[in-house]
Amino acid sequence: MTEEFEPKIVAFLCKWCSSAGSDLAGVSRMEYPANVIPIQVMCSGSVSPLYIFEAFNRGADGVLVSGCHPGDCHYIKGNMYARRKLLLVKKLLEHVGLEPQRFRMSWVSAAEGQKYTQVIKELVKELKPLGPQTKLRRERNG
Amino acid sequence: MKKRTGIFICHCGINIAGTVDVKSVAAEMAKEPGVAHSVDYVYMCSDPGQNMIEQAIKDKKLDSVVVACCSPNLHETTFRNAAKRAGINSFKCEIANIREQCSWVHKDKGKATHKAAHLTKSAVKKVQKNESLEPISVPVTRKALVIGGGISGIQSALDLAGAGYKVILVERSPSIGGHMSQLSETFPTLDCSQCILTPKMVEVSRHPNIKLMTYSEVQEVTGYVGNFKVKILKKPTYVDPAKCNLCDECTKVCPIVVPNEFDVGLTGRRAIYIPFPQAIPASYTLDDKNCPDPFTTIACGKCADVCKVKAINYDMKPEIIEEEVGAIIVATGFDLYDKENMAEYGYGKYADVLDGLQFERLCSASGPTQGKILRPSDHKEPKEVVFIQCSGSRDPELHCAYCSKICCMYTAKHAMLYKHHVHDGQAYIFYIDVRSGGKGYEEFVQRAVEEDGVIYLRGKVSKIFEENGKIKVWGVDTLSGKPIEIDADMVVLAQAMRPSNGAQELAKKLKLGTDKDGFLAEAHPKLRPVESVTAGMFLAGAAQAPKDIPEAVAQASGAASKAIGILSQERLYHSPTVAKVLKNLCTGCGMCVAVCPYDAIAFKDGKVEVNEVLCEGCGTCSATCLRAAIQVKNLTQNQVQEMILACLGG
Amino acid sequence: MVKHEDVRAEAKKLLESGKVKYIIAYELGADGWKANPVFIKKPEDVDKIIWGPTCFHNLIRFVVDEKRRKVQQKNPDTRPVGVMVKGCDSRAIVILLQEKFIERKDVHIIGVSCEKTGVIDERKLANKLKGRKAKNVEFGPDENFVVTTEEGTVDLPASEIMADRCLECIAHVPVITDVLFGEKTKRTVPHPFGSVEKIETLSSEDRWKFWSEQLEKCVRCYACRSVCPMCYCDECVADTITFAVSPDTTAEEKAQKIKWLDKSPVISENIFYHMVRAIHLAGRCIDCGECERACPVNIPLRMLNKKLEKEAKLLFGYDVGFDSEKPALISCFRDEDPEDFIR
To answer: What's residue C254's pLDDT?
Structure first.
């Protein structure tokens, strides 16, 4: 029996917008795939590039960073720094040959439960055909 | 010391247990390193549930707990309090959200259970490395600053003063009153604007708790909620209000005439002037931008010569006043969209194309025409007047994308007032939509149409030009599809409202956010509409968004009550999950200093240090630092790494 | 053309007057044709100083070391150190100033213009000479080098033996100096990111193939880090720890040490290390090429750093190492920063 590949995804969600948006998706009982394990951070601006490298290194098939829309950041402008920093990370990952679909950033507001489910559904759909991420994954854990 | 973490998995009835196999999650968690206790229960948030946690902490000597339940936004406080009651630090309790982020969004029981276990494990890893922290406490300066002396600022100041707090009200122009003092009548009741405003202005001037600083501007604000330090520039008026007896002799001799701001340029005023008769403070101001005039270098001295009470003092100097306050209300109001931007409607080019505020002055009994509506060009009574709504509003391509909200109502009022003054005249209103939400508003618009015969034309004006002493208005009535040509005597533009001049710079000084249009940003569009993004600073009136008078007043009172919420405290408590510098690693490069949205990081001895009271714990510094030399307590990079591992393991 | 005598005279003046502590410069190496770094401490030694197309080294690394030593000293000599800098090296000073690692008064910058060329690439030269040994390499009058071997003197065009980074150089004249030798020549660089662009044209899979083959070779000797003037952290995040231990380090802090990646030189860890290094050098790498030159296994490390320099320029309009007053690349943003990748 060949079981369908289920990508493992780590999602860094900012507390004020995207995590609240994912809560709203829950309150509204919007169904989406269970592949994503969220980690709540205070702000998308606090997501260090190392978190993303580490997640891929530890076997994530995809990584999502989601923050507040521009202008809505609870911390005024943390998301703006995130946007710049993580675009560099994305460019670097793609430069070394990682599939672009594997690292994604989104803006999801506290009101966008629907959008959150959409983002997750798309991400899972795009990652399934790619199969497991082995390029950056370490062989043994230690 | 070996960790002793307790795990409590909530069923939430069937909300969680219906999708997540809570028993197996509890069993799986029991095997995790450092877990001393792992149970499930039907409603953890219930009293028996909380008791169960407290009892377990005591009996099993737990040093930390994870409650896997609903969103931390709901019961984090509940469980942290329970942990505290049982004798462990409240930060030794973490929530794993297995309801909103798991059971409610997944159907497959196997997958949901698997995910719930990962979420719980992630919380376990985090809590095991949480520090015990106590809230940071700071004393409160029980005094407020209100910036802007329009109706919003006046209302906030009066509410604060009425509640017994000292207030400093700063207004940059010579008198308080703002735009409301320029209006003739107010919709939908048509009561006289000045008649309802001036009693409040007088109250401000007489209130023992209010220190009024007109002709003054906020220069610098430092500090933090409860403890702001403010520098206020008091510009010289060159007139001592204590001596001035308002005899008005000075203006009679002053040779310099400049456009009168109060009449929006429809009249002139002297370089020494009182903005309007009911101005507060009741005193004259010598405007040093215009006196002495640019062609001479010294003042002519005529006003001082004629002043019998010797109130005029040319040697007055600007002063910087320093004040300490606990809360700040920003009520900097609006200005109309710039004339230059509306060249297509001939605004600024034809004398008889006016904006709404100019028309208010024409209608006003205290205005340049003593309430007679006359054309500025030839002082004749206009018989056909075209009012154009959304002039600069709702036009994302060329002008402002937003709706200025009050123009539909005041245009209806203008048309009505015009008809009341000129009985045989005709008023036309070009509109896109008529938005009349508000108590008595729709009825008011209907009254304009039915009783005063105002003609509403749905469509945009395409061209305005002057011909034979008339202002030709070409437009299209989109309802009938017919082109329309009106030979108008006067055109009144309902100009968009925009944040007042200088509001952007002030926002920078206060470190307040602004939205894409430059209006001050509220902390939450729905639930925190009067709070700014900076703790201890509140927003009132049109500075935040276009508003009419009742809305501005309501927000002003809301802001005052929020400020009172701070000022009524002895001390304020601040979350201790703030950034911390690891001095050994810090090289003082200052990248964190540059990114900190709160200026909470400062250089010290070649390294940096965090002001824990200013820090909000966003962690942007931590992600910017190349050396991981700055970390947010209880969400360190180490903790996040553990969480990443927990999420991906198994 | 920069005259050796001029540089030497300046050095002599500086040392004699006691204006500088010592001078970090180039001397002729033991092999008789390549330059070596040298610390000139006495006026009588200034005649050792040379300048030529083999002055590869970015001497700013020694400025970093000097600062580190100074921090340790009780009563440090606060006079500046003199340092010879090429255009690229001068940008490293700008970064150190921008990051407040050094102060302007810590260095006396003796700038030398690369004028029409730059430094050579030893490997390119060796290929060109086909086994003949170079005895001397000098700047030619134009975009060329004059190479002397046993068999005589040949004139080789810069395009053939110059280092790649010099072919793509955007600062052949130092951007910050106390004294400058040589002409402020104009130079146009048609493809400042040409070499990176070649890799960019590859497919995702081919890029992965390229990098995995390259990074598989990495022996984790950290030579790249050791020569890099921007890698001045006392402890590298990419190593094993992030928490330096000192007498006041608490047990709890020790427990917070992070091991991001494994020391073993396997591909996943190698790539992690090099990605961390690249991202930490984004907006800071000034393309002196020292990492690549120092690499014992010839990994084209410039192609990682140059990629992000390119993105900084293209995406954010950010020029690296020209203005010490402006914020670091990731410490600022523009409202119009691209966000079409955010969905």
So the answer is: 67
Interchain CB distance below 8 Å, C328 and B582 = no
Q: Confidence band (pLDDT; 50, 70, 90) for C240? A: low
Q: Which residues of C touch A70 (CB under 8 A)?
A: 335, 339
Domains defined for chain B, CATH in brackets? 5-134 (3.40.50), 143-214+321-333+500-567 (3.50.50.60), 236-317 (3.30.70), 337-496 (3.50.50.60), 578-632 (3.30.70.20)
In the prediction, which pLDDT does B343 show?
85
Residues in contact with C91: Cβ distance below 8 Å, sequence separation at least 6, in sequence order:
C171, C175, C286, C320, C321, C322
User: And the tokens for B627?
Assistant: 């050396």
> Cα-atom radius of gyration of chain A, to the nearest Å?
15
Alpha helices (H) along B436-486: 441-450
What is the residue range of C204's domain?
191-334
Structure confidence by residue, pLDDT tens digits, B395-426: 999 999 999 999 999 999 999 999 999 999 99
Q: Which of C150, C168, C190 is the last residue of a domain?
A: C190
Most B CBs within 10 Å, among A12, A19, A75, to test the B interface: A75
Structural domain count, chain C:
2
* Tokens at C194, concatenated: 């040409």
Looking at the domain that runs over A9-130, which CATH code has it been given? 3.40.50
CB pairs under 8 A between A and C: 113
User: Which tens digits make up the pLDDT trace of A65-99?
Assistant: 999 999 888 888 999 999 999 999 999 999 999 99
Residues C309 and C266 in one domain: yes
Distance CA B630, CA B636 (A): 9
Looking at the predicted complex, does its ipTM rise above 0.85?
Answer: yes
Q: Does A41 lie at the interface with B, CB-CB under 8 angstroms?
A: yes
Q: What is the spatial distance between Cα B390 and Cα A117, in angstroms, rounded to a whole number? A: 38
Q: What integer pLDDT is reported at residue A142 of this predicted model?
A: 43
Shared domain for C105 and C250, answered yes or no, is no
Interchain CB distance below 8 Å, C232 and B587: yes
Residue A60 Cα, gap to closest chain B Cα (Å): 7
User: Mind listing the pLDDT tens digit for each residue in B217-252?
Assistant: 999 998 888 999 999 999 999 999 999 999 999 999
How does pLDDT run across B561-582, given as a tens digit for each residue?
999 999 999 999 989 999 999 8
With CB atoms and an 8 Å threshold, state whether C342 touches A106.
Answer: yes
Chain B contact for A127, CB < 8 A? no
A 10 A CB-CB count for C237 gives 23
Chain B partners of C230 at a C-beta cutoff of 8 Å? none
Q: Does the structure show a pLDDT above 50 at A19? A: yes
Burial of B4 (0-12, 13-18, 19+ CB in 10 A): middle
What is the Cα–Cα distance from B70 to B60, expressed in whole angstroms?
A: 24
- Top residue of C204, C263, C275, C314 to mutate, by most chain A CBs within 10 Å, is C275
Query: Does a structural domain hold residue C340?
Result: no
C121 and C201 housed in the same domain? no
Domain closes at, from C153, C173, C190: C190
Percent of chain A with pLDDT over 90: 87
A11: number of Cβ within 10 Å: 28
A81 shares contact with chain B (CB less than 8 Å): yes
Count other C-beta atoms under 10 Å from residue B233's C-beta: 17
Q: Give φ, ψ of B430 to 5 degrees.
A: -85, 130
Q: What would the mean pLDDT of A56-70 be, rounded to a whole number? A: 96
pTM of the complete model: 0.78
Q: Does A87 touch chain B (CB under 8 A)?
A: no
CB distance A135–C208 less than 8 Å? Answer: yes
Mutation target to probe the C interface, by most C beta carbons within 10 A, among B92, B127, B583, B584 is: B584
Same domain, C252 and C321: yes
Strand runs labelled E in C142-253? 144-149, 152-157, 179-181
